[in-house]
Fold these 3 entries.
Entry 1:
Amino acid sequence: MPTPQTQPRNDSAPRGGRAFMRVIRRLVRLGALEDVRRLLDRVHPADVVQILRMLAPTERKAFTDVLLSHGRAGEVLADLPQAQVEEILVQVSNERIASLVSRLAPDKAADLLRLLFEDRVVAILKLLDEKTAATLDRLMTYGPETAGGMMTTRFLALDRHTRVGEAIDRLRSEPEAEMVFYLYVVDDAMRLEGVVSLRQLVLARHDQELREIMNPKVIRVRLDTSRGEVADVISRYNLLAVPVVDAGNVLCGIVTVDDAIDAITDETTREMYRLAGLNTEDRIGTPPRESVRRRLPWMVINLGTAILASWVVSFFEASIAQVVALATFMPIVAGMGGNGATQALTVIIRGIALGEIDFSSARRAILKEITVGVAIGVATGGLMAGIAMLWKGNAMLGLVICMAMIINLFVAGLTGAAVPLVLKWLKLDPALGSGVIVTTFTDCCGFLSFLGLGTLLLSFLK
């Protein structure tokens, strides 16, 4: 959730950057942990996260020990990658974790507790006050990828008959309420009836009731709405927060814009990693052994597809032996097809993620990508034909490579658009596996079309 902006103190330490990193590292190496603790008082939690990511493992351990005794530890942990938080929490006592989560917003506290084993969660909840424990227990029943798992329960909701002057007094008396730019209007059963912006509240007369100035057309999401959809709603309607309701329209919480940004960032990172066959937990600071373990299975699959492409080439060894120039131009045909497929794949996956493409519009999207692929194939194939003719002095070789590029970019457009849509239809992640499947198609079809045409016209190429 958003944090209030504060003016930097005159004595604040330089934040971020190599100079500050050198200061932190030097203090940690010298064992001047009290000086490190004092510096933490002057650094924003978001900057502490960056420091942790850049420190060496031994330095990170000492820095973490200091951080856990600091009042801002919970805010920092809430913004760290999941794997790193899990590693840290293993070393922390239940009492310390209870102290940390009691100072966090409910949604962030619930996210931290979800990383622990159930027996630890139960023990920690017993250490909290009854109201906080009940709130966190309820939030953890919702999936982390849903609106219920994202929402915070620190919001301000008032009865429709509340007068504007009373509402302003309530705002002043609720310093912990999230997103005071919106005030939600409810009935006696907490059913959402309307919303009042801070601007409307300030401009209204103090004796007016909220029902007179509220907007009854409230954009809302359900508890089971996915994270991606919640982020899309906030982005599409330019909201600072969106209310979350249950099946009976009872207001349960709100999702703030910063959580939506986190969701968009996480989803973008996830898709980028999946397209490359990577695990989202594989980061710069991940130990080499762990990175090898996560990447090796996918690389073995890639090896299998490469062998398949080589197997296709093996059928034309005799042709290559007679016209060696075929081997020279093979990578160009395959490479252009792979690049074209990646472009089509990126556009389609983005469209699926943003809800721009559904199965009713799939045919149009596929035809568009095929058309683009063929057009690019004609343009680049013609250019390559001229280059091949000037380079090798053989017009027929130029024609062969031109035709092969057109065919392969047709395949690239078709598979780049169709594969993610088929995976979506099969209820699989379109980003996961699409790259390998599409590249296999373009490599095999590129080699087959180029070498096949070359073999058919072999007498003209010698």
Entry 2:
Amino acid sequence: MEHTIAAVATSMGMGGIGMVRLSGEKAIETAQKAFSPAKKDEPLVHRLMRYGHILDADGSVIDEVMISFMQAPNTYTKEDMAEVYTHGGRMALTRVYERVLSLGAQPAEPGEFTKRAFLNGRIDLTRAEAVQDVVSAKTRAAFEQSQKALSGGLLRKVRPLYEETLAILTIAEAAISFSEDTDEMPADLPERIRSLLGGVDALLQTRSYGKILKEGIRTLIAGKPNVGKSSLFNALMQENRALVTDIPGTTRDTIEEVIELQGIALSMVDTAGIRKTEDLVESLGVDRALDQMETADLILWVIDASRPFEEEDRNIRSLLQGKTAILVINKGDLADDAAVDRLRKAAGDLPHVVISAKHGAGLHDLTDAIFSLFSLGEISEKTDVLLTNSRHMQALEQAKAHLEQAEQDLAAGIPLDCVEVDLRLAWTRIGEIIGETVHEDVLDSIFSRFCIGK
């Protein structure tokens, strides 16, 4: 990390303010070469904003700016840094960025500022990854959870597990080293492994909620043609996103949008009506709808309360076996209670709601049904951190498997040097989460997903 890096850290689109960021041994020196302060005799003060201009090599003004110089180690990267605040817009940012590059700075890689913060010991890997989660959060709940991780919430959960695994590993290695003096296994070793497993498992139990918070619920609206699928889609979107007519087969392809449902993202997918058809285009839409059913987290199966339960409905019901679904009885205003009850019984044992997508009736009941089905109320009640990162989930699952193997081997009287292998692997996997035992290629993969300038 000897070289000084620079990047445009704000959007290149139109805006009030843009920012070019530098970090490295010559960050301040490089920025000073390009900067002409309005008050020439003003001293350089850590974090004090100064007004002036960025000048080109010939002395002409590139842009009017504010600039902040920050001295190591009290910076984001723990290196010398400079931040140049320009007018917003592509041209101002590009010209200032090109100027600092011409003075010796090198273009930053994606996530390189945060990677330097990690490598220089300012933050652990969970907090580094939380930076990107904050940037990419789609909902308020996901944003708040990312902020908890950014403030060290997940680190405070994982580090004790890492340290306890290391302590158990140390005990096992000591016992192996002195095996010539005693054949006894440390008496508390099985209990400590069992207790550690409890801690790992408790954190793993939050992963389903964490996945929903971060990725949302992929929700498919399905049913036979002309039952009101697109009307429901539009009602949930609160706009006319999908074309609605009385002609069956109007929707030929999937339409996707994301809505926020009390802090949870629902990736809504409106599909073509499922039926046998000779129309080639419509048939392709039906095939796509069937494919989407296989990957959906939730299927909203829409039927028409004013029509009888037909063969097409029975075929769709068979496709829902083993899937998470809610029966949505639409056009409830056009049918009496007896007709609705017959449809509900014919559809089988599924949670159901009665709505009128056209008039907006029953949509709150649908929201409540979704929250109940996924226990989403429990997410809002949780004040602690959740596992939201698939890398963390995989590492903890592998650590758990190794700890369980170690526990079983101890109980079976397997030699301690064999048990030590699984303990070491568990320690390595937990350490990967916070960055204590992570490999360079993993780091490269993590930070390559960041935006440039962060």
Entry 3:
Amino acid sequence: MERKTKLALAKTATLLAAIPALVYANASGPDPGLTGVPNEAGTCAACHGSGTSSINTKGGSVTVALPNGNSYVPGQAQHLVVTVADPTAKRWGFQLTARVAAGTSTQAGGFKSTDSNTQGICSNSQLRTAQPNTSGTCAASVPLMYVEHTTSGTRLGTTGSVTYGFDWTPPSTDAGKITLYVAANAANGNNQDDTGDHVYTATYSLTAATAAAQPTISAVVNGATFAAGIEAGSWVTIQGKNLTTAASCDAGSPRPGCRTWSSSDFTNGTPTSLDNVSVSIGGKAAFVYYISPTQINVQAPDINAGDVAVTVTNGNGTSNSVTVTAADFAPGFFQTGRYAIATHQDGSLVAPASVIPGASPAARGETVILWGTGFGPVSPSVVAGQTSSQAIGSALAYASAPPNITIGGVTATTVGAALNPSALGLYQIAVTVPNGAQSGDQPIIANSAGKTSPANVLFSVR
């Protein structure tokens, strides 16, 4: 008897010694394999509640918010949020895993905690070990990974619902359909595994999607000449790929991601975004006129001279940052083909009729209007994003330093240079063709405070 009594006491002592460890283990996270994956340990109902028949029957739920919907991009992390809700619970827990649907014993990606309420663990196929993990990748000997609550994550005393956030990175290649398994325990907080604990489960099926193409800038150039050189308020062209989310553009068929601005875009002033496409120059929003997947035209904001960073943002993210040098002057003529856009007094174009129907060369001694951008400060000043008529009314905003212009190497007389009253950043420059200019196509060059326009632009003289 004495031996039996001692044996019974020893067994009782062993059991009592184990209870605190078991309680602590449950509070700090469940054992591996309790998410409901087939052929694993089951769910939280293995210890809590009234068994499997009571799962999802107590008026609560467990859900997972998926930022990409029911899809994943191979290798691209997404932040998942688990919500556990229950009308009576006062303490909470969960466990989630991701498996390849074609073989649920194959892990699908890894988890990383983003706060102290969750933790990752790795285990083997026998579920006999639970190794803490913070890297998001399990060793080959313990290939199965779970994310679950921590002790602080149980949030004793919280009622109604709780959330758990963490990052999941899918496999780096298309793994086919992936199933997320999640189980949650909405407990009554009495530290007992009894019927007052309510267990909820859910599964989500995810399909691989193509990675969204990020915008990429290849060049930032003068919007008139497509050469280097920008300034505050000048027109700027950004070249690249995936600059909008449109696949391609058809000429003459405006559509989202392939269009110029319209009157409806000016509800809140000159638009700094078209179809969720925006441009930052020197940390300031540019004014967006035209967008396409390969080219964007903007008016630069009021930036200081010096190096500035340029980025494009659309629905797929923000592009690489390209650094360009902004100057006080960046003169350039708008062009049609190789010819500077210039107009006679009747508004017709200056160019050979053989190149542009209806156009004609300029006569020596004739005063014509050249059209360009980047000719420097004006007086009175005009802020970017406004026309001069909006900024200063009927007065003209003259170039503070009128450009010196040569045609075929001969200096032309600059009659005047000012911003067009009804257009953003567009200079109109009245010049008289010098009598010494040679007939035919001649190079035309503007010099503004030592900055010159490209030398390969032509002007036609009769």
